[in-house]
Amino acid sequence: MSALWPYATPGIPDRLFQQLPGIPLTNRDVRLLVIGYLRLKADAHLWDIGAGTGTVTIEAALLCPQGKVTAVERDEEVAGLIKTNSDRFGVSNVEVIAGSAPECLNYIKGQPSCILIEGAPLKTTLKAAWEKLTLNGRIVVTANNLEALYTASETFAALHMRNIEVAQPTVNRLETRGNRQVFASVDPIFIISGDKLE
Amino acid sequence: MSALWPYATPGIPDRLFQQLPGIPLTNRDVRLLVIGYLRLKADAHLWDIGAGTGTVTIEAALLCPQGKVTAVERDEEVAGLIKTNSDRFGVSNVEVIAGSAPECLNYIKGQPSCILIEGAPLKTTLKAAWEKLTLNGRIVVTANNLEALYTASETFAALHMRNIEVAQPTVNRLETRGNRQVFASVDPIFIISGDKLE
Amino acid sequence: MSALWPYATPGIPDRLFQQLPGIPLTNRDVRLLVIGYLRLKADAHLWDIGAGTGTVTIEAALLCPQGKVTAVERDEEVAGLIKTNSDRFGVSNVEVIAGSAPECLNYIKGQPSCILIEGAPLKTTLKAAWEKLTLNGRIVVTANNLEALYTASETFAALHMRNIEVAQPTVNRLETRGNRQVFASVDPIFIISGDKLE
Amino acid sequence: MSALWPYATPGIPDRLFQQLPGIPLTNRDVRLLVIGYLRLKADAHLWDIGAGTGTVTIEAALLCPQGKVTAVERDEEVAGLIKTNSDRFGVSNVEVIAGSAPECLNYIKGQPSCILIEGAPLKTTLKAAWEKLTLNGRIVVTANNLEALYTASETFAALHMRNIEVAQPTVNRLETRGNRQVFASVDPIFIISGDKLE
Lengths: 198, 198, 198, 198
What we know:
4 copies of one chain form a homotetramer. With 198 residues, chain A is of the alpha/beta class.
């Protein structure tokens, strides 16, 4: 239970996170769908690869207090940002690894039950992630460009992942611009998800 | 914890719910956003008015085991469907009221901390809901047509609700049609939400 | 036939228009739909009220060389921009009026067969436009906010317009950002259209 | 000029076309964008491969009376439907070929200045189309599934097409369902376009 977010439901407003200019942040509406596709058990161990601002990391850590989230982020400063946000929301079940996927994945202790890839060399990271993932585990990938969508889709098929789903949320929101409320759209993203079954 | 949905995250696939032909079901992608906008505390008391198949009711009951959901549904048979789904998912913190809003709201015990209106005479139900809602409570309305969108927006303003947000998710999904995977879209819906503050 | 746009089809890329910072420009994808909803005859007289950069004005003038477009724009400088664009595309059937609708509509010669309202006090302008419009004429309104959507919808109904349609295009496009091609979305707009019949 | 569509602008309502159950029809809103991306000159020769109901064929023929449209359709009965629609709209500059692409493309007289591929074995048809296309000609492909999107994107790159654009329109419309007007969405489609330059 966080003082900053005393709710049992996900959906933390973007502005509650500490942010750094230019660092990706999975916006709330897209994040709600990503959380849904992750399908985390209460004691899940999630790897969040390319965690950026750490918004999904924080939401997952809050929803699964008996679980654990390992956030992997290449950039030292951004890794620090995730720690700042963890402190801000008072979550103690987050581990931050400053390192480059897929190489650094070998140094993480324990086996993940769920892996989210938000950024990293996709093909090699997906293959490494797949090796590490527990049986009956899930992988979710977010893609904002065609190449990543292709690669994810093809690699999922090559790894014989099951229950593959591709969703593309596009959320329009009334936003205040000047003294008017206009419809603005959130840039669309593809969410590709699947299971590792026997 | 449900045997059918042993997860700490929302996002139950539509096919896991018992369904009746013609009865509205809030599909998973839209439901994830609705859950996010509800912003429920662990001990929340949610009224789900016009609950239909009861998908939001079930998700909320699972996320808030110390809380309570009162599902209001005009039609006796549909009210029975919500009970069936409650049993199916093993939730015991759901109360189903077969009755017409806004009249029947007077007979519900306790005061809600959050109210979702998925269907009912919107203006009168919103006003009655507002009266019942605890201070610092939230109201969320889903609208699939212009008239409901107008009414919700105007009534929210007239009631001096705060932090009003309007979001319109439109989710495209790869779906199997025949032997092909084509992009299909989920019909868009508007989600209007706001707070009751002093 | 324009040297700059030697095509029989609409859809001029945005970058071909002279632009001024802060002045609205109906982007190509939305413009294609607006043109379609205008349903112009070869000898149409179109009033484009709140014409901004003049993109619809130019496209309509090119498609209807025997017709005429009267572009109404409140701001003198913006009115000049429309003239610049008319010269650029070599269209001679465009008249630019620098004035405020609805008042200035009384000073336009001739009766329009089609009216597009892209910006102006909506209710009074719609009523004035309706009076001026020929029988069997059409009115199209673009709205980027809820209030304009309401007002257009209600005023169309009050004027007993026929064949009312409301469309909301949201176009995602692959765009180059840095050295990547990412999906970006065009802000959604509502297009409300209807006929004046006996 | 058609008695049925006496307009200088595209955007014929779907219901004005003769239709056959199960035969694809490019709906009006998507069609307006396809027409825009085709960028036809007044004397264009367009090949419409996999023309289905022939809606784009008819719109193009009406916009380019000095041009010509060759509609290619595998199925004899559907080819007949295109002829019926040509007669219906009184266009005489449409040629219908009942045959399978890419093989049948060798038997079409003349060289196209623009090619639209709405359906056919995509890779081989794209390559054959490219060979036939005049210099400075354009190719447009519509794709409603990931595989077609991939193939189009990769083949466009392999053929060194220029000015490649990918757009994905998703249009929401108010539609009457029972006695209500609800928002419904048109299934999204990808439109990939590019130029053949020296």
